[in-house]
From TrEMBL:
SUPFAM superfamilies: PLP-dependent transferases
GO molecular function: transaminase activity
Superkingdom of origin: Bacteria
Protein name (record): Aminotransferase class V-fold PLP-dependent enzyme
InterPro entries per the UniProt record, alphabetical: Aminotrans_V_dom, PyrdxlP-dep_Trfase, PyrdxlP-dep_Trfase_major, PyrdxlP-dep_Trfase_small
Organism of provenance: Salmonirosea aquatica
Keywords, sorted A to Z: Aminotransferase, Pyridoxal phosphate, Transferase
Residue ranges of every copy of the Aminotransferase class V domain listed in the record: 37-379
Taxonomic placement: Bacteria, Pseudomonadati, Bacteroidota, Cytophagia, Cytophagales
Length: 386
């Protein structure tokens, strides 16, 4: 695909290689937000009961399409990854085959929202948290995938794993991990925040029990609104909150005090309260339409082409990058030699108007379709100068 920089209002002279921190709005997404603000103020007299429900359904359908899932009724609107993880933690004790003494498998150095939810449920339910360490190896992704599969055994209740590592861009073999998890009756919980939208996700092959994505990174949408897919295991589960919209007949405003005992089907009960979000939803809808029009496969190909000449130069300069096929192209960890000051190098790059993230012992370089070869050249030149 061609560069899409013309669709964005990015400032001239700034080399923003940091979509993994926050994806900027395109002009179309900005326009959707401005229109939504107008509709919420000057056009408020046109608001109907349908406006509380249908825009959210449109977003669910778009997200289901993006992850190649057939049932948008299993998609819920959540404010954050931690919210969805808390839903899982609340329902884990009711999982089929659950027993004290089982373990939850996590990955070393995972994002905190994928970790904190399990400490309390593990203490309350007598579970063990097993963290699979990141191997020190020149082929970290390949070796790490093998050790994860080895760790999954008959005592595993659940594994929490991303598709792409949030710091270094390692690709995890979710189809193989899913097969192994199902063999032992374990749940697979996937944080797709750093992959879905820019990296293809085949729901039929992966079949996670839960997939959750924040909306403000590779979905290119707003902060504080994300999406989560819950499979049939959660159809009769316990929500975090008892929002009125989750109950049957909630669209009939004149009978809301005819209190309903029955939830709307499938994942609807897991929606955050006030999920109508009259401003945020139109923004997320426009962003999802944009990402679908580009296509995650095309985004990967664009980013691969963008970085292909820079990678051997960086490697020759002493930086380590994971070899293919375990390296994503939209999120690349440029690991520094031991002893180098990661934060200092990031500041040097920022002073040169090259924006990346310092994560762990590396720089997280995360291009998108608005980036140009000049952005990558600025990164390489600044690192070469030190």
């Amino acid at each position: 695909m061609d560069c899409q920089k013309h669709r964005f209002n990015l400032p001239a002279g700034v080399h923003y290689l940091n979509c993994a921190s926050r994806g900027p709005f395109s002009r179309a997404v900005e326009a959707a937000g401005i229109e939504a603000i107008g509709n919420t103020t000057s056009q408020i007299h046109h608001l109907t009961a349908t406006d509380f429900f249908e825009p959210a359904w449109e977003v669910r359908r778009l997200f289901a399409n993006l992850i190649q899932a057939s049932d948008p009724e299993r998609v819920a609107l959540v404010p954050s990854v931690s919210y969805a993880m808390s839903i899982v933690a609340r329902n884990l004790p009711h999982k089929a085959g659950f027993a004290r003494g089982q373990k939850i498998i996590l990955l070393e150095g995972e994002f905190p929202s994928d970790v904190y939810a399990w400490e309390r449920v593990a203490a309350e339910q007598g579970l063990t948290l097993q963290t699979v360490p990141m191997p020190l190896h020149h082929e970290t992704g390949k070796v790490w995938n093998k050790t994860i599969l080895t760790a999954i055994d008959s005592q595993t209740a659940m594994i929490v794993c991303p598709h792409v590592h949030w710091m270094y861009g390692f690709i995890f073999d979710l189809p193989a991990i899913s097969v192994r998890a199902k063999e032992v009756g374990a749940w697979l919980i996937v944080d797709g925040t750093q992959s879905v939208g820019a990296f293809p996700f085949d729901f039929g092959k992966i079949q996670p029990d839960v997939l959750v994505c924040a909306g403000y990174k590779w979905l290119m949408g707003p902060y504080s609104l994300g999406l989560a897919y819950f499979n049939e295991t959660f159809d009769d589960g316990i929500p975090l909150e008892e929002t009125w919209m989750a109950r049957q007949e909630s669209h009939h405003f004149h009978t809301l005090t005819d209190y309903q005992a029955t939830y709307r089907p499938k994942a609807y009960r897991y929606n955050v309260g006030e999920h109508s979000h009259f401003i945020q939803l139109p923004i997320l809808k426009a962003a999802l339409e944009q990402v679908l029009a580009w296509g995650p496969e095309n985004i990967q190909a664009y980013c691969r082409e963008l970085l292909k000449d820079a990678i051997p130069v960086l490697q020759h300069a002493g930086y380590h990058l994971e070899p293919e096929p375990y390296r994503a192209h939209h999120l690349v960890g440029v690991r520094l030699p031991v002893g180098q000051d990661v934060a200092g190098i990031q500041k040097m790059l920022s002073d040169n108007r090259v924006l990346v993230s310092a994560r762990g012992q590396g720089l997280r370089v995360s291009p998108q379709v608005y980036n140009t070869p000049e952005d990558v050249e600025a990164l390489v030149d600044a690192l070469a100068k030190g």
